[in-house]
Design goal:
By secondary structure, the chain is an all-alpha fold. It is built from four helices and no strands.
Length: about 120
């Protein structure tokens, strides 16, 4: 849940505050110093989302491995992808948000197919 809250906060900032700041910059030629502070805060929210999403995917993968109702390959894939998400973000400093949706989509499809 907290991952989703962090993502929503970051997206609200990007979709509402950033366009207003851009319009202000175009008309005045000056960036409001408050915008820079809020931008850093929003980036922190996105970082929180990414780390929590990666850790959550690892936990889901471990649950798949321990549950034995779904393929072991799916569990290990989720563990590895969750670790790649966290590691990639730590190393690169950014990662596309859709990457966090791929393992959970694979889990959902697997659950639908297996009938669990």
């Amino acid at each position: 849940m907290w991952s989703a809250v962090a993502f929503l906060i970051a997206m609200v900032f990007r979709l509402s505050v950033t366009p207003v700041a851009a319009k202000t910059f175009v008309s005045t030629g000056v960036v409001d110093p408050t915008y820079d502070m809020l931008r850093h805060w929003s980036s922190g929210m996105f970082a929180t989302f990414t780390i929590l999403a990666g850790v959550s995917i690892v936990a889901l993968g471990l649950a798949v491995l321990l549950g034995a109702a779904l393929p072991v390959l799916l569990g290990w894939t989720m563990v590895i992808l969750g670790a790649v998400i966290v590691g990639g973000f730590v190393v690169a400093g950014d990662i596309p948000p859709f990457v966090a949706y791929l393992p959970t989509a694979a889990l959902g499809v697997s659950l639908l197919v297996s009938g669990s």
